[in-house]
Design a protein that fits this description.
Layout (H helix, E strand, L loop, with lengths): L1 H14 L7 E4 L8 H12 L5 E6 L2 H12 L4 E4 L4 H20 L10 E5 H15 L11 H16 L4 E5 L5 H4 L7 E2 L3 H8 L15 H10 L1 H7 L13 H25 L9
């Protein structure tokens, strides 16, 4: 199915010289603790089509896998990522992998790595904490949480000249689109959101350089230690990535979906005795 999907995107891939038209394929989510298993699967996925990009989780093992896969010529998409610290660690891993390829005289011109920040899932997590811990923060602050993290990471990416682009994912509302206009980034919009934004009266103008109001950031920092962990560049160490609340919730969801898929495939392979043969 992915091979067919990649073929549909090849014209855009060619026209835009690899900056668009890539198809993401995710490594097995149950392998999030094994760099070797993820790299092996990524290399196989990369061989399926020229415009494949492979998802690695920004877990402790995933960061090592990102470097190794990049060194082998695989374009990666760092996912299960919610913080500035995870984005920076993944970008540094990409840089190390690209440098290794260059030192070996191998090409990198057709590669297009991206680093995802799942801005909506960070906001989801802060809302869970609000209910769980009885936190009363101003309701206008929470929708800006993922945007604040993304914009801070973007500024650092620009300052450091990372060759991977940032990708915004897990869209929840129009700020997750309108506040990112004008950035050299990728936004993965579900079709329903794209159509909704196209039909809206939201002014389309560059806002990427607009800062999130300091009072809003202070409100989030004051009430949510996990926002501080996500917002500060050194808020999480690599060893802490796997245990971060949004990471645990997302890994659980991805792993559950994987097992559901296995169940569906297994069920499809068996004849249904309740149906009459025709």
């Amino acid at each position: 199915m992915s091979v067919r999907g990649a073929k549909l995107l090849e014209p855009a891939f060619a026209i835009h010289h690899g900056r668009q038209g890539r198809l993401s394929i995710q490594t097995n989510p149950t392998s999030f603790r094994s760099a070797d298993l993820m790299v092996s699967q990524a290399v196989r996925f990369d061989s399926l089509a020229p415009n494949v990009i492979v998802k690695f989780p920004a877990t402790a093992a995933g960061i090592g896998g990102i470097e190794e896969a990049t060194a082998r010529g695989v374009s990666i998409n760092a996912t299960v990522s919610f913080s500035v610290a995870q984005a920076l660690a993944a970008a540094e891993a990409v840089e190390r992998g690209l440098q290794r390829r260059q030192e070996e005289g191998l090409p990198i011109d057709r590669m297009g790595p991206v680093i995802t920040i799942m801005i909506g899932r960070l906001e989801d997590w802060l809302r869970v904490l609000s209910e769980r811990d009885g936190i009363v923060a101003h309701p206008s602050a929470l929708p800006w949480s993922g945007i604040a993290v993304f914009k801070r990471a973007y500024r650092i990416f620009q300052e450091r000249g990372y060759r991977a682009r940032l990708l915004a994912a897990a869209i929840r509302h129009q700020l997750h689109w309108s506040e990112l206009i004008g950035g050299d980034i990728v936004i993965t919009l579900p079709s329903v959101w794209q159509k909704r934004f196209n039909a809206s009266d939201v002014e389309v103008r560059p806002r990427m350089a607009d800062v999130v109001e300091p009072a809003t950031v202070d409100e989030l920092l004051r009430h949510f230690p996990d926002f501080e962990r996500a917002y500060e560049p050194d808020g999480l160490g690599v060893a802490e990535f796997d245990a971060f609340g949004p990471s645990i919730r997302t890994l659980r969801a991805f792993i559950a979906s994987y097992h559901e898929l296995l169940h569906l495939v297994g069920d499809a392979l068996l004849p249904n005795p309740d149906l009459k043969a025709t």
